[in-house]
Amino acid sequence: MLVLHDVRRPAIGDDVVDVALADGRVVAVGAGLARTAPWSAAERLDAGGAVLLPGFVDSHVHLTQWAAARRRIDVLSARSAAEAATLLQTGAGPGEDLVVGHGYRDALWDSPPHRDVLDARFGERPVLVVSADLHAVWVNSAAARRFGVQDPTGVLVEAPAMELMTRAGTVGDAVQDRWIAAATAAAAARGVTGLVDLEYAPVEAWTRRAAPAVRVAAGVWPDWLEETIAAGRRTGDVLAGDRVHVGPVKFVVDGSLGTRTAFCHEEYPTGGHGILRIPPAELEASLRRATANGLHVAVHAIGDDAVRVTLDAFEAVGCHGSLEHAQQVHPDDVPRFARLGVVASVQPRHAVDDRDAVHVHWPEGADRAYRFADLHAAGAELRLGSDAPVAPLDPWDALASAVHRTVDEREPWHPDQHLRFDVALTAACGGRRGVFVGDVADLVLVADDPARTFAVGGAEALRRSDVVATLVGGVVTHRSG
To answer: Three-state DSSP class for 476?
Structure first.
């Protein structure tokens, strides 16, 4: 048993109360509870008036990639291929066999990345750079020879890029597990109690990771769908300990805005409509196969035509699940989310980061981009995530981006699509609206009421919110100080 002493629940009222936890749940709430039996004998965490919220749940993470990206050379600030090469040179250690960078965004570069740029700086030293959106990999000639990359530009996109990321990122199970443990601890330090891991990897890797600092729903990719079915695994089944469970099956219908492969109705200025990676009939058959075997589905769809194809498949099959990203949605498709019971799993930081690329590459479809408020107004169930390492695995950043769509000195982008604070907070907490008796004890204590923080200090103050403690199933996974 554990009693959280002197906490506030602003969604319920601003009175200071004690909250008792037992068997992984909230079992009692009341003023002075810690002084009465049986709670007076329980372990006590003195919160000092901190605000108690449901734990944050990141609905879309690539955890292995994020854990690795925390150790890679950051080239996010590069405004050209040459700048990216300079950042790689500066950050590369002398003893590294393979130089690995992460985070390049070439959507606004004057010229595309090319292996010649890296060859000029690194010669025969292999270099590999992962794009910020995880949909492209850029290598030099030495790395191309090592990994069998045939493209003369040294750039791979979509499925070949993702396969290369997996091969190049192999560091051994022990090292990878240690990195992931550190990554989940970092997430817990920001108030995260759960996440959906949509990493391109077999879920069996999670059977050896019994005690992450957060709950993990481990996603299944189609490459491993049949063996998952054969093993009798269903969404929600335990994989390890009491925190790791089978998650949804991840299907990828199109590409991304950053690589100009998102499948869109309007043609890109550079030509083409993007890539439809799964034809409609195949998508329907795949959704039927997964759901008939007890597996939920999460479908990546970014461009408006990809979103429509995905919603059509949900409607034809009659299944529920999530549509991941929904970055561009035609007005006729906005109300379909609620009608079909499809969750809109969105990443608010992408709207902040992509605003310039949207106007360059989606000039005819910019008014359809990142329509969070419209989706909510139409009754869609929203969930917030990061898509880490595409954006920081930090729920406060996602929350701030959802309620105030800018991260620099510019005015917010399409402020009519801001989410109300209470709506965004609920979506960031996995649909929970407060802390009540009977709830699972996945909780976060913060120094100040976040709604007040935002009202007084704005989005940047919200991003700096101080997490006092995080608990998963009533167990403390992070404590400041």
So the answer is: strand
Tokens, residue 79:
């405004």
Chain position carrying tokens 């690589």: 259
pTM flag (> 0.90): yes
Spatial CA neighbour of 389 closest among 45, 34, 20, 130: 130
The pLDDT, as a whole number, for residue 11 is 66
Q: CA separation (Å) from 236 to 65, 125, 159, 170, 296? A: 23, 45, 27, 28, 9
Quote the CA–CA distance of 161 and 134 in Å, as a whole number: 8
The closest of 143, 209, 224, 200 to 176, measured between CA atoms, is 209
The whole-number pLDDT of residue 117 equals 97
Q: Tell me how far CA of residue 27 lies from CA of 5, 44, 352, 446, 472, in angstroms.
A: 14, 15, 40, 21, 15
Lookup: tokens for 286: 């795949």
Alpha carbons 341 and 345: distance in angstroms, whole number: 12
Residue pair 209/244 in contact (Cβ under 8 Å)? The answer is yes
DSSP 369: B
CB atoms inside a 10 Å sphere around CB 318: 11
Prior bond of 412 cis (ω within 30°): no
Local structure of 92: helix, strand or coil: coil
User: What is the per-residue pLDDT across 244-280, written as a single tens digit (0 to 9) for each?
Assistant: 999 999 999 999 999 999 999 999 999 999 999 999 9
Query: Residue 475 corresponds to which tokens in the numbers above?
Result: 């167990």
**How confident is the model at residue 13, as a pLDDT?**
67
* DSSP secondary structure letters along 373-420: HHHHHTTPPEEE---BTSS-S-HHHHHHHHHS--SSSSPPSSGGGPPP
Q: pLDDT tens digits, residue range 331-356? A: 999 999 999 999 999 999 999 999 99
